[in-house]
Design a protein that fits this description.
98 residues; mainly alpha; single chain
Length: 98
């Protein structure tokens, strides 16, 4: 005797399968994406704050060292420091784990 399955049961079966195989993994991906965006924002905020602090410290706390013809030096030093930090972050992001 053949098993009689109605259209409602097939719909419920497809619906539960879709929840299990599609919606479940997307929930984990959404959480992963949320943490990634939060981390990116915090890194951006921290790098901006630290670079401004370094620039102001070089401009204000070094006395007359960076005045006149050397007024560009604090900006160049800060840009170099930012480049080093960003370079270190990129190498950590792109490094393959063993």
């Amino acid at each position: 005797m053949a098993d009689k399955t109605g259209p409602g049961e097939i719909y419920d079966l497809v619906k539960s399968y879709a929840k299990q195989e599609i919606i479940g993994p997307l929930g984990g991906a959404g959480r992963w994406l949320g943490f990634g965006l939060l981390g990116s924002f915090l890194l951006m905020f921290g790098l901006t704050s630290m670079s401004l602090a370094l620039l102001r410290a070089l401009q204000e706390e070094t006395g007359s060292t960076f005045t006149g013809n050397l007024s560009w030096a604090p900006h160049t030093i800060t840009l170099g420091a930012i480049s080093i930090v960003i370079g270190a972050m990129v190498t950590r992001i792109t490094r393959r784990s063993l």
